[in-house]
Structure to design on (292 residues):
DNA sequence: GTGTTTGCAAAGTGTTTGCAATTTA
DNA sequence: TAAATTGCAAACACTTTGCAAACAC
C-alpha cells in the first residue's frame, strides 16, 4: 500500500488557500475556490461550465470574473490549463504531472496519473530548446447509442 | 540505410491528387494543393499562414475558401489536424502516426516521427471507449534573446 | 481612504455559414 | 446547363479588455 503523505497539505479553508496564493478572498473567488477544490476530487472545468455551476448555486458572478479568476488560479499554481480542443480552454485541479483521456464526442476529460507512464524514443529537443512539459492526450470515442 | 519505398506514391500533379480525393481541381484548390504538397517537405500551416502565403504569391483566394479547403483536404486524408494551442488550428501535411514538438513561444511545430516512440503504462480506456489516436506534444521554449 | 476587484458591455480573435455570382465538367 | 465551388459579409463561439462602481483591508 502506498502512503499518500505527498498529497498537497489540505487547506483549512478556501480563505486560507486564496491567501496563500496572494489573492484577496472576495465573495466571487471564494465560491469558485470552494467549488473547485472542496469536493476532494479532481475537476475539469471550462469557464462556461464553472460559471453556470455557480450561477445554479445561486451565487452571482460574471463570466468575465470567472475567466479572470481561472487565470489567476492558474498563475498561482492552483490550476493547470489543458489543451485538447481548439475551441475551449479546460482547467484541471490536478496540477501534478499527468496525462489525459479526452472523449472527443462529449468533450469529457479523464486524468491519467503520471507515475506509471514512460515514453521511450523521444528525440532531443531542437536547438537549445528546453522542455517545458510533455503532454499525452489519448483521444477516445465512446459510442453514442442512437 | 533505410529504404523509403513506403513513402506515399508521389502524384504526377496536383490535379491528380485532387481527383483522387474526389475534389474538382479548381484554381484555388490547385494553388493551395501545390503549396502544401509540392515542396516535398512536411508542412504545418494555419488557415491564416497559408492564406497570406498564396496571396503573397499573387493568387486570389478568400480566407473562407482556405478554411473550407483545409477541412476538405483533412476529410480526404491529405492533411491532419493538430491541436496544440487553444487559439488556432494547425494542419499538418504529415498524415502518418507521429507526434510534435511545439514551441510555445513562437508557435512553431516540428514533427517527431512515430516509429521509435513507445508509451508504457497507459491504462485501458474507460468503458467501451475506443482509442482514436494518441498524441504526444512536447512543449518547448526556445530562449529569446532580449 | 486606498488600492483591489468586479461587472458590464464592447472589442477581439479565429472560425463557420448563407447565399448570390461564378466556374467546372 | 446542371451541379459544385467561390467570395463576401454576417454570424459565431470563446475570450479579453476598459473603465466606472463596489469592495476589502
Amino acid at each position: 500500500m502506498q502512503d499518500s503523505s505527498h498529497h498537497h497539505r489540505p487547506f483549512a479553508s478556501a480563505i486560507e488557500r486564496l491567501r496563500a496564493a496572494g489573492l484577496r478572498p472576495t465573495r466571487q473567488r471564494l465560491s469558485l475556490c470552494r467549488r473547485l477544490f472542496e469536493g476532494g476530487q479532481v475537476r475539469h472545468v471550462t469557464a462556461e461550465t464553472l460559471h453556470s455551476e455557480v450561477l445554479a448555486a445561486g451565487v452571482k458572478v460574471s463570466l468575465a470574473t470567472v475567466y479572470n479568476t481561472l487565470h489567476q488560479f492558474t498563475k498561482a499554481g492552483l490550476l493547470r490549463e489543458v489543451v485538447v480542443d481548439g475551441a475551449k480552454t479546460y482547467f484541471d485541479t490536478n496540477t501534478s504531472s499527468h496525462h489525459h483521456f479526452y472523449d472527443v464526442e462529449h468533450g469529457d476529460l479523464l486524468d491519467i496519473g503520471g507515475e506509471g507512464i514512460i515514453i521511450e524514443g523521444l528525440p532531443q529537443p531542437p536547438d537549445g530548446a528546453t522542455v517545458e512539459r510533455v503532454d499525452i492526450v489519448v483521444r477516445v470515442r465512446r459510442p453514442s447509442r442512437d
